[in-house]
Amino acid sequence: MSWLVFKDTADKMNDTHRLESECSTDSRKMAKCSLCGVPFYRDQSPCVPFCSTRCQQIDLGHWLDENYGLPYEDDQLDPFEPSE
């Protein structure tokens, strides 16, 4: 299993170098993945702002595990209720 992870990482590194070398001659829009930072062509990714479905699923997992969250205020201090 560790070989597969290493191979996946090596493939991403090779793709990164390939995309960086093509970036100067190609007018397509490049972006960096919100999760892993790998540059990719926006028009070739089915899951922008992520480079792959894998990164999209990892990000979803962070939300579902509550590693990410939205700020909230305590309901006791409701600004719309008149103070007594």
Structure at a glance:
This protein is mainly alpha-helical. It is 40% helix and 7% strand.
Question: Any overview of this molecule?
Answer:
The structure is a single chain. The chain is mainly α. It has a domain at 28-69: Erythroid Transcription Factor GATA-1, subunit A (Erythroid Transcription Factor GATA-1, Chain A, 2-Layer Sandwich), CATH 3.30.50. Helices cover 40% and strands 7% of the residues. It is built from 2 helices and 2 strands. The chain has helices at 2-23, 53-64, and strands at residues 30-32, 39-41. A two-stranded antiparallel sheet has the order 1-2. Strand 1 and strand 2 form a beta hairpin. It is elongated, with a radius of gyration of 20 Å. It starts with a helix and ends in a 20-residue tail after the last helix.
Biggest sheet descriptor: 2 strands, antiparallel
Oligomer designation: single chain
Helix content: 40-55%
Rg, nearest Å? 20 Å
Query: How much of the residues is beta strand, in percent?
Result: 5-15%
The N- to C-terminal Cα distance equals: 64 Å
Shape: elongated
Order of helices and strands: HEEH
Mean pLDDT: 75
Strand order of the largest sheet: 1-2
Q: Quick one: CATH class of the domain at 28-69?
A: Alpha Beta
The number of helical runs is 2
CATH architecture tag of the domain at 28-69: 2-Layer Sandwich
Structural category is mainly alpha
- Can you tell me the CATH topology of the domain at 28-69? Erythroid Transcription Factor GATA-1, Chain A
List the uncertain runs: 1-6, 19-24
Beta strands, count? 2
